[in-house]
Design goal:
The chain has 177 residues and is mainly α. The chain has helices at 3-13, 18-28, 37-49, 73-84, 96-106, 111-135, 138-163, 165-173, and strands at 16-17, 53-59, 66-71.
Length: 177
């Protein structure tokens, strides 16, 4: 996720104060982790420096002055380029799960126990996500579905690895000739 582009997206519809941007972010993306005000203002400062936003107005209040930020043409172009560019698929070729299985075998521990413990944790998390999905709105459903599909793929890998554990153990522990 690029926080800069997220903020530009909120500003494209209309100029906004940092407070409004944070509220929109938290409403749409911060369900599990809210955005800190410091992140908002540091990102706006960087966008301002790079010419992607301008300060459209300043309002005096009881505290610090409130700046209203607006997106520039360069910001619109940057946002459009980011939205049009596909994200790199993450193949996870050296996952922590695989590393734990190999290290368990190499250290004489039970790789089957590692797989069983991980399977139980995946299932627990999947139950939690399913509850959240059923109780939530469409955004929750989509977010939870994405996570559930990834966890299902991990579970398939755990099962496949468990089925191949004897072969993997033999290959990792055979002595070179």
């Amino acid at each position: 996720m690029s926080l800069g582009q997220m903020l530009l997206g909120f500003l494209e519809a209309q100029p906004r104060h940092g407070y409004d941007i944070k509220r929109l972010y938290d409403e749409h993306f911060g369900r599990d982790r809210a955005l800190h005000y410091g992140q908002v203002y540091a990102t706006l400062s960087r966008l301002l420096k790079n010419g992607h936003v301008v300060v459209e107005g300043v309002e005096a209040g009881g505290g610090p002055d409130r700046k209203r930020y607006a997106i520039t043409d360069a910001g619109v172009t940057d946002l459009a380029d980011w939205l049009a560019h596909p994200e790199d698929p993450q193949p996870y070729l050296q996952s922590t799960l695989y590393q734990k299985v190999v290290l368990a075998i190499l250290t004489g521990r039970s790789a089957a126990d590692v797989l069983d413990t991980q399977r139980a944790e995946h299932l627990r998390t999947m139950r939690e996500l399913t509850r959240r999905k059923l109780a939530g709105d469409l955004a929750d459903e989509l977010i939870c579905d994405h996570a559930l599909f990834h966890l299902e793929a991990d579970l398939r890998w755990l099962e496949l690895t468990a089925a191949r554990l004897d072969d993997l153990t033999a290959r990792l522990t055979e002595t070179p000739r």
